Amino acid sequence: MGIMEEETLWRPTYARVDLDNIRHNVRLFAGLVGPSCQVMAVVKADGYGHGARETAKAALQAGATRLGVALVEEGEDMRRAGFEVPVHLLFEPPPTAAAKVVELGITPTVYTPEYAESLSKAAVEAGAKIAIHVKLDTGMHRVGTGPDQAAELMERISALPGLEVEGIYTHLAMAYEPRDPFTLRQLEVFDEVCGRLEERGLKIPMRHAAASGAALSHPAARMDMIRLGISMYGLLPGPDFNGRADLRPAISLRTRISNVFRVPAGEGLSYGLTHTFDRPSWVAVLPLGYGDGLARALSNRWEVIIGEKRYALVGTICMDLCLVDLGDDQRAPGEEVVVIGGYGEEEIGVERMAEVLGTINYEVVCDISKRVPRIYENR
Known about the structure:
Layout: E1 14-18, H1 19-33, E2 38-42, H2 44-48, H3 52-61, E3 66-69, H4 72-80, E4 87-89, H5 98-104, E5 107-110, H6 113-126, E6 130-135, H7 150-158, E7 163-169, H8 182-199, E8 206-208, H9 212-217, E9 225-228, E10 251-256, E11 259-263, E12 268-269, E13 275-276, E14 281-286, E15 303-306, E16 309-314, E17 322-327, E18 336-340, H10 350-357, H11 361-366, E19 374-377
Helix pairs in contact: 1-3, 5-6
């Protein structure tokens, strides 16, 4: 079961994470790419809001062989949790962090000579040799060395003591739209650069380009490893992937009714009185608000499930509270409320909420606040 039972929470708002669904999603991708392709489980941003330590453990149990993080601090947390597998740092931190990177034994991404030199110096001082992955910018234009500079950077890195180039990779800008031709253009650039590097005698043991979307839609992008992020958590890489894989969302956001009161017809409620009742109604107060990640923009635009029945959120969502129109139903304090559904509750799920908010599912789950306890099922 979970870290704590929800009954022990003084404020009964919690996110339930089903680790069996994490394992299912990882096994699905491991089977898709086959034994010659590794799976990196990306657990940055606290496992996309699901909890990095617990999701990393579940992913490794299901066949992932490496972990991916964005920050040195996140890599340190993985080491403190006892994970000894390769932990990839997906972006360059400031050069002053190089000694810490070497100390932790994490696998850094490199795309500037200055950072490479700081890593080399730190590795030599520590008497270590560290594997690095070079990031190549093939058209996303965010971070990475350009195609015309890649050979010079690789040669420079290869001459530095304490460093060993284990891999080269790129990130795809349009993979969330499976039919967009830009992905094929990026893969062509990547292959061309790798070919030129090999012609100059620069060996590259590992190549990777695909995250969740390209892993599903572009088999040629799978190469030696995929970086499994959003779909590890059971969420779609993009709307066009709906129905293309048996993804099982792992997280649901739940609370319990804290209070119930009656409102006469003609009355409004909450800040700004943005909802007015045209009939007498029972209203439930939920101890959950935008301070927990329930976006204020959902005011008067969302529904919740109580006892398998759907009810509208009404009035302005507050920092700590929101309100539900129960109509003639007399619900009781303490009844469980599903605010964001998990597997089998897609109509109030993460994908639907992202659509209502005009954003992406990544943001919805990452926005679930740290003050919302995570309760883990099937640990």
